[in-house]
Amino acid sequence: MVQAKFAFIKLIVGDLAGEQRFYEQAFGFTERGRFETAAFDEVILGQDGVDVTLMLLCYTDGRPLPDARVHGPTGFATDDIEIAHAVCVAAGASAKGPVLVVEGGIKVALLDDPEGHEIELCQFG
Questions:
Q1: Going by C-beta distance under 8 Å and a sequence separation of 6 or more, which residues neighbour residue 11?
Q2: What is the pLDDT of residues 84-107, one digit of tens each?
Q3: pTM above 0.70?
Q4: What is the enclosing helix (H) or strand (E) of 102?
Q5: Cβ of 59: how many Cβ atoms within 10 Å?
Q6: Is 115 exposed, middle or buried, given 0-12, 13-18 or 19+ CB atoms closer than 10 A?
Q7: pLDDT above 80 for 1
Q8: What domains can you pick out in the chain, each with its CATH number?
Q9: Non-local CB neighbours of 6 within 8 Å, separated by 6+ positions
Q10: pLDDT category, 69, cuts 50, 70, 90?
Q11: Alpha-carbon distance 91 to 60, whole Å?
């Protein structure tokens, strides 16, 4: 029996408003909540019909930011990878290469968000 279910991914960002704008424009996220403390500000973003949320955390106490590439990509599934890829680039992402077709006809594309967090788009069979 599962004692805890997967609920969110948290990215540490330097420009909270800019990153929020990117994920809203690129993936249709909307703000579900916000925390503001002496040490950090955090926004909770969600998509319609999806329980897992994306949390963006911005330190406000002057501590250095960790490298945005210290974890693997944040993955998004799509029915049309070419359109999703173009929307991400138009919203400020940097493409890391072309859309690739891998085993089983799965299409994959890697991009970096405006602060360098890696995004993986997948179109399954």
A1: 19, 54, 55, 56, 57, 68, 74, 117
A2: 999 999 999 999 999 999 988 999
A3: yes
A4: none
A5: 17
A6: middle
A7: no
A8: 8-123 (3.10.180.10)
A9: 52
A10: confident
A11: 25
